[in-house]
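Exercise 7. Given the encoded structure of a 113-residue chain, write a plausible sequence.
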């Protein structure tokens, strides 16, 4: 069963987070796997507000044997995000596992360049 993790992102600011997948205290080896993260305004919305997949600058398996997935969203992208829901899935061959899911809360930006 997927874990629950709510993301809080500041609009117009860079967002960086590294997540480590462990099972019974041991890192899950992600060698040969890929990851995908999607956000929508609601579960039933057909359109995504964020759609990331590995390998990319925004989503990567940064340490496969250490079970680490890095999310790095630039300020231009976060400036256009809205509140919603998201999930992060790991794909290994034909097996898809939802790692985490939760709400995506975006705090509005006051300062603009």
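Solution.
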């Amino acid at each position: 069963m997927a874990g629950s993790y709510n993301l809080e992102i500041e609009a117009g600011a860079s967002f960086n987070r590294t997540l480590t997948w462990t099972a019974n205290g041991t890192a899950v080896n992600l060698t040969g796997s890929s990851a995908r993260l999607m956000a929508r305004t609601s579960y039933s919305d057909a359109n995504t507000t964020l759609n990331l997949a590995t390998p990319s600058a925004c989503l990567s398996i940064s340490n496969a044997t250490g079970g680490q997935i890095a999310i790095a969203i630039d300020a231009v992208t976060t400036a256009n995000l809205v509140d919603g829901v998201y999930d992060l899935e790991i794909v290994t061959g034909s097996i898809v596992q939802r790692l985490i899911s939760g709400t995506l809360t975006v705090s509005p930006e006051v300062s603009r360049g």
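Remark. The chain has one domain: 3-107. Students should compare their own answers with the one above.
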